[in-house]
Amino acid sequence: MATVATVDKPSPYTPRMRCRALVILAAVCTSTVVLAQTGTPSIWVFRIYQAGTTTQVGIPVTVTAANVPCDLAPVTGMSNVNPNRWRFTDPARPLRQCEYPDSTRLGALSDGSYEGTITAGNVDGSSAETARIPFVRRRLNPPAVPTGGQIIQ
Q1: What is the pLDDT of residues 110-135, one digit of tens each?
Q2: Mean predicted lDDT score pLDDT of the chain
Q3: Is 95 among the domain residues?
Q4: Are 135 and 116 in contact (CB under 8 A)?
Q5: Which H or E element spans position 49?
């Protein structure tokens, strides 16, 4: 009877290559976790600018995170004309939103185009400002009552 010799095919991956692949995989997985770990905001800062400028309108408003309700259902499709509150993504629940009512300050702005930004902060520092959020303040401005009217023959 003939004996058949079998030959094991060598792996195309050397032990060194396998080790490097594991190290790279571990680094990628770890870096993703590290990037996702950001501090919890304890304050929010709301700023308003004249549109297209670096000129702030009024002073920034700083609000403790405890006074900004979060975990709210997302709102979309709202007008940016005459806004009365700020809405942004809830940092703890990315599919939900937070809301800060600011009707007094937003309502006091004169007619014009503005941009708002939001900054988060805690004891370790502050985030960068968000991208500019455009909005318009426009009051109803009907014409004045006509004067000097006469009905004549």
Answers
A1: 999 999 999 999 999 999 999 999 99
A2: 84
A3: yes
A4: yes
A5: strand 43-50
Provide the pLDDT for residue 33: 37
User: Could you tell me the residue range of the domain that residue 87 belongs to?
Assistant: 43-137
Q: Per the domain annotation, does 119 fall within a domain?
A: yes
Q: What's the confidence (pLDDT) of residue 153?
A: 86
* Residue 14 included in any domain: no
| Dist. CA 15–CA 4, nearest whole Å | 29
Question: Domain tally for the chain?
Answer: 1
Confidence band (pLDDT; 50, 70, 90) for 141?
Answer: confident
Ordered DSSP codes for the chain: -PPPP--PPPPSS-HHHHHHHHHHHHHHHHHHHHHH--PPPSEEEEEEEETTSS-B-SPPEEEEGGGS--SBPP--S---BS--EEEEE-SS-TTSEEEEE-HHHHHTSPSEEEEEEEEEEETTEEPPPPPPEEEEE----PPPPP-S-----
In whole angstroms, give the CA distance from residue 124 to residue 41: 10
Q: What is the pLDDT of residue 37?
A: 55
**Shortest CA distance to 132 belongs to which of 63, 62, 49, 45?**
49
**pLDDT score recorded for residue 149:** 87
